[in-house]
Design brief:
With 70 residues, this protein is mainly alpha-helical. The chain contains two helices and no strands.
């Protein structure tokens, strides 16, 4: 048990809330940009790839945190 009886896993989840909100905002912007017609041909693919990478990274972080022993 950690400080105030919270587990290490719960502490990590609390600490990740801020960064995850930031990643969520970037993810939404990339999705929005990848759906628009942009003048530069590669821009749509770049924003789509960034969005995909962020989504995958968030999933891996959640899986890692879930695997931590409380």
């Amino acid at each position: 048990m950690g400080f105030f009886g919270s587990s290490k896993k719960e502490q990590i989840k609390r600490e990740l809330r801020g960064p995850f909100r930031y990643l969520d905002d970037i993810e939404k912007m990339c999705k929005q940009f990848s759906g628009q017609e942009l003048n530069k041909g590669n821009s749509r693919r770049v924003f789509s790839a960034i969005q995909s990478d962020i989504t995958n990274a968030k999933k891996k972080i959640v899986e890692y945190v879930d695997d931590i022993q409380s």
